[in-house]
Amino acid sequence: MEEFTGVNFLKRMENGTLAFIGDSLSRQQFQSLVCMITGGEDRPDVLDVGREYGLVKVHGAKLPDGWAYRFSSTQTTTNFTYEDTILRIFTHLRKMEVRVQEVQDKKEE
Q1: Residue 24 pLDDT more than 60?
Q2: Domain extents for the chain?
């Protein structure tokens, strides 16, 4: 397996979106990915597109319902949406297009 680089990841994900939906564990995965792509640096090609996904901080909230960033060099978007219950996740997914490339049965031992 080749070493992860942000440049290669963005090329493979060109014009795509990677969404993390869930609780604090999903948020940490989202934050780690963004950090690995950017090297922890502020970059002018990273655009905050949270409003496009309805991810805004409502009055009185400590945090928004999530974050979304687009890497303008490849039009790749990654986002995190906080959902605390599975019912809300399914409701949210009905509004999204989900593509699965491969599903494999787990071999019983």
Answers
A1: yes
A2: 6-92
pLDDT digits (tens, 9 = 90+) for 61-107: 888 889 999 999 999 999 999 887 655 555 555 666 556 666 666 66
The span from the CA of 33 to the CA of 107, in Å, is: 30
Separation between Cα atoms, residue 68 and residue 72, nearest integer Å: 13
Q: Enter the tokens of residue 23.
A: 């609780």
pTM (two decimals): 0.72
Strands (E), the chain: 17-22, 46-48, 66-71, 76-82
Place of tokens 């909230």: 61
Could you tell me the two tokens for 70? 């687009």
Residue type, 37: I
Tokens of residue 8, six digits: 């290669």
